[in-house]
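Memo subject: From amino acid sequence to discrete backbone structure tokens
Action wanted: Derive the backbone structure tokens from the amino acid sequence.
How to read it: Take the token row as a discrete description of the fold.
Attached in line: The record itself begins immediately under this heading.
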Amino acid sequence: MDNKRLRIKELTELLSRAARAYEQENHEIISNFEYDKLYDELKGLEEETGIVMSDSPTRKVGFEVLSDLPKMRHESPMLSLDKTKEVTALAEWLGDKEGLLSWKLDGLTIVLTYREGALALAVTRGNGEVGEIITNNAKVFKNIPLSIPYTGELILRGEAVITYSEFERINKEIEDTDAKYKNPRNLCSGSVRQLNNEITAKRNVHFFAFTLVRAEGITFETRRQQIDWLISQGFDTVEEKLVTADTVADTITYFSDKIESNNFPSDGLVLTYNDIAYGESLGRTSKFPRHSIAFKWQDEIRETTLLEIEWSPSRTGLINPVAIFEPVDLEGTSVSRASLHNISIMEGLELGLGDRITVYKANMIIPQIADNLTRSKGCEIPKICPVCGEETFIKEENDTKTLYCVNKGCPAKKIKQFTHFVGRDAMNIEGLSEATLEKLVDQRMIAELADLFHMDRYRDEITSMEGFGKRSFENLLASVEKARSVSVAKLVYSLGILNVGLANAKLICKEFGNDIERVRHAKKEDLIEIPGIGEVIADSVVAFFESEENAKILDDLLAEVTFTVEEETGEKLSGKSFVITGSVEHFANRNELKAAIEREGGKVTGSVTAKTDYLVNNDNLSNSTKNKKAKELGIPIITEKDFLAMLEE
């Protein structure tokens, strides 16, 4: 049975890849004869075993858009786990019993119900008592079985996760830094809870089963038996190891050694009694079941002194508190600042200047304050914006307090707005650093975006500024004149619409024929019909253009610019997909290389997948992650010289 199950997964992956290559990329990786032969083999195995995977070419799942996600109450509350960071505590907890140690994946817990061999229901954990129904989305998870051989009612729990590599790929496609996802868990949560499951399908969500709640008519003595049975039904399960009090320490070392190479995010381990009856006999507290316990790795923690709280405004008006402290070494680097994220976190730590605090790196990456040993509560929330001096207000939403500047004309907002507008991927006006823009705003030479096109009025003032001479000023004016000719997509991106990166701006503008008037009057229902544009982006676009202030900004800009027709692309690289990694030598930067590929009809993505045709890397013998992935998939690794030779053919 195991061999047949593995063969089903192998055939599903191969045939799906072959179908994509033929239908979307206009080339064949296997012949029609071979495809039909393998298809028949897969269909026969599915009928024999009853296992059909979600991406099987024999079963097409239709996409569906919902108005909202309905909710339902869980059959029994889903409790959190008690936890420890001490290995000795785990050994004592086990005693003379055998346990099952597994990853504690960091995603979204999902409850699946199968009836008559088919997926009938999928519900998120929610608050532990009430979750959201996401059945349509679960049907497009990357590795979930839609059909299984067992025909009784089956209820199981597992974790929906998105890999680090997929997280990086999606974030690389988002040009707006503020719109990037903070971590794979946030991305997974948003992907699983989409109202349009076509978006979920594109996010490559994986599901790993970790608990069998009930299988009608079947009883098991051990957790290991349950896991093995779930595997036989076609499920991928969380990696686990049998342990005793004597072996648990070594097994924790095994897992900790795998953290760096593990592509799935985790935030610890879970230890469960293997004997089901014994574990259940222990009952539960009001908060935790007693059959399992979570293990968290000890963080490298350093003690230091809090020097100040820096309040950092953004172009959205949000003012973030940042803790500045005496530098400490953490995980091999010197750290002297950590974001406090919001007022609620700052208040919870009861921070005061001069307090002794402990700091660590969350997941060994992000600096955080672990605790405040002094708790003097001396830090005040500024009543005025640190940049413009106007009144601030505290917004409370979902039990979280955040600080905002109410001044629409706040220089901090303006400076961030201007910096984004002149950026390389936006209007590409060279010679205007954030520091220079700050000076121009402070001296009231520029107040609105359109003012950038009239800096010639301040020739004497600007040429007398430090770092600016006549030549640099003339170069700046030339760059401004060049920016007057711009594509509709770049202008839309340059406006700094929340959640709208350059790629999304291009999608939207193309949909509306690169007509700025159609774009600015687009309705939400039309926007969400565009592949890749969800409700969040659509809401941002509509809200931005409905603002009278933004309408004036756009009207003023339209008086300054003329639109260029998007450059026609060649066909030498038509249908070919590239990934660029490493440093470049023949091009000024990666963006220039990307533009060269796109001019000839090629496409550039952020990560190496089965769809990739070429990986461009001048160090083609390196052991980088992308090189390894390309070699595994048989994808050619070419240098810039190889690429230039392709263009000359």
Summary: Residues 49 and 149 are 6 Å apart (CA to CA).
